């Protein structure tokens, strides 16, 4: 096993299906959704900007997010050997240093695509890439903290992707209202990331990763996740109503009420029902993002 992570000599090029698994396509949806919300919140039409939109979706999902997954799997290969031994790197299907090389190549491609989309998008892409590496790689390795790690992921997956979508459409900085809402949804996403940590409690505890389910216990972490997600949405609702986007505020309020109805089941057995709540509560949360974007963009 030691040879497989220190050398690529005589190691075959990984199969395409294993590279795709390494990049975890299922994780691309949140930043791509946030990018779409950003584009909608701009209120701009697509005329003449199809290339920028397509490039931005590619940048937010398969490229920057895919890069973050490759970086994470490389530097977490020992953790995955406990939590998910069938992943491409710990299983040996991506052997030698190919995991690292894939992350480096994806970083370079992401930077090139970002450059083609304009200086603001390029800068946002570089920030996202920097956090992708700092999250998993020494010396920062933000993921070892249950507070900083989820905040970084929430900021990049939701806020930075939303910012990129709005910037691609406008060609300039988004309005203040859009910036405030994307920051609030980034804060609330801390709870989503905390819920994702429930699946790896044993491995995190064994390897010293201080996720909130490890440091606060699963019950405390679940209550915190619900509180931070709900609190962010309450502030969004209040601001949208203050700014006159009453229909958006009403829709998000209804979606939040449905989340409150689902929370008791999660809190009864957080470790068991965290995946269920990710499918129900988080879906309602991101639908609220779209409702906010539609209001800000002048569509409702």
Q: Would you mind describing this structure in some detail?
A:
The protein has helices at 16-22, 29-41, 50-75, 77-83, 88-91, 98-116, 119-136, 148-170, 176-196, 201-207, 212-215, 217-243, 246-268, 270-296. With 300 residues, the chain is mostly helical.
Largest sheet entry: none
What name is given to the CATH topology of the largest domain? Tetracycline Repressor, domain 2
Query: Any low-confidence stretches, pLDDT <50, length ≥5?
Result: none
Computed CA radius of gyration, to the nearest angstrom: 20 Å
What is the number of helical segments per DSSP (H or I, 4+ residues)? 14
Classify the beta-strand content into a percent band.
under 5%
What separation lies between the terminal Cα atoms? 57 Å
Order of H and E elements? HHHHHHHHHHHHHH
Overall, the morphology is: globular
CATH architecture of the largest domain: Orthogonal Bundle
Give me a quick take on this structure.
The chain is an all-alpha fold. It has helices spanning 16-22, 29-41, 50-75, 77-83, 88-91, 98-116, 119-136, 148-170, 176-196, 201-207, 212-215, 217-243, 246-268, 270-296.
